[in-house]
Amino acid sequence: MPPLKTAVRADGSVAFGGRFSISFQRTLRVPEGTAAGRLPPGLGALPVMAVDDYAHRVPAAWRERGGVFVPLHPREALWLGFEAPSWHPHAVQVGVGGVNALTGGPWSPSLGPGPQDYLVCPPQLWLDGIRTAAGEVRQLVAAPLGRGYTVEAQVTGGERFGGMQLVVYPPRPGRFPDEPPHAEPDPRPSGGMLGGPPTVAFAAGPAEMGIAAGGRIAQKVYPDPHGADTWDTSAATALWVHLLNAEQFQAVTGRPPPPSPVSARTYTEHGFPWFELMDEGDEDLGASELDRVRPLSELEREAGEGEGEEPFDIPDGQVVRLHRGNGGDGQRS
């Protein structure tokens, strides 16, 4: 895989041009070992920092690949939120450590023949995990490199890349309108530089992380309703997303890291909502080669590390049902 060029600057979400953006949402870690469950909430966007702004305080490999970095605590979960107007959709490929998050095949910044290895946004509002079965994903969970826990390690036998990789494809000219139907201004941010010169040096220790598989979540990945030839591969924008151990975040940026997230059980016991997208009539891409990836908690137990959270029930009254109309902004909070 060739190094990825920094495509955008970030300020809470990553904007790809003026009509598409991606956010990295803090969330609860779903308990593993149970049937696919509800959608966890969004607990606010994670900070997103441009590698170029901290070039002298990050690992050399990050400088070569460019992109952005996001702080996460080990074993912390996240989900990706996509925002694009219904009248001008985009396609996006998601890689986790050089592995395509939808198919389990090698991640490649191109749209080739074969099974669909990309999302179309809209209709796809979110991606909570790697696609493992029909109507199901396994949650994206941060894990340190070097222990064999990541999806990359399990699929490829090594950990060369870590982090996440994104490629966004706009539609070919003329396929969709260039202005909203009622000529309304598009409120989507155009992006911008975030952060200033760091004040302390990069601390020693295990900082880089990758994506491991977490608990099962009920979530469909929709087939492309427009066809692969809709997307302009010549105008694609690629971005490398590095994952930084939250303990190292302050050493790099001079800013305190996000707090450690609350447990899913504690969150639920306090009566806060979970979510369900009502899309029973929509198609799904089905299973993928990633169904053989083992969850992080199982691997940690074998290694004598970590303590997984026991399954628990979510009261039906705490489940918010979302339809395309009221879930179209990509927010779950």
SSE blueprint:
Blueprint: E1 13-15, E2 21-26, E3 49-50, H1 60-65, E4 68-72, E5 77-83, E6 90-96, E7 99-100, E8 119-121, E9 126-127, E10 129-133, E11 136-144, H2 151-156, E12 164-169, E13 208-218, E14 237-245, H3 246-253, H4 264-269, E15 274-277, H5 296-303, E16 319-322, H6 324-327
Parallel strand pairs: 4-14, 15-16
Antiparallel strand pairs: 1-2, 2-5, 3-4, 5-9, 5-11, 6-7, 6-8, 6-12, 10-11, 11-13, 12-14, 13-14
What can you see in these coordinates?
The chain is α+β, with helices and mostly antiparallel strands and 333 residues long. It contains 6 helices and 16 strands. The strands form 2 sheets. Strands 1, 2, 3, 4, 5, 6, 7, 8, 9, 10, 11, 12, 13 and 14 form a 14-stranded mixed beta sheet that branches. Strands 15-16 form a two-stranded parallel ribbon. The longest helix has 8 residues, at 246-253. The radius of gyration is 19 Å and the shape is globular. The chain starts with 12 loop residues before the first strand and ends in a 6-residue tail after the last helix. Mean pLDDT is 83; it is low at 1-7 and 184-206.
Question: Count of DSSP E strands?
Answer: 16
Query: Could you give the order of the helices and strands?
Result: EEEHEEEEEEEEHEEEHHEHEH
Low-confidence stretches: 1-7, 184-206
Give the structural class. alpha+beta
Question: Mean of the pLDDT scores?
Answer: 83
Straight-line N-to-C gap: 36 Å
Helix content: 10-25%
The multimeric state of the shown protein is single chain
Number of continuous helical runs:
6
What is the overall silhouette?
Answer: globular
Strand content: 25-35%
Radius of gyration: 19 Å
* Biggest sheet character: 14 strands, mixed
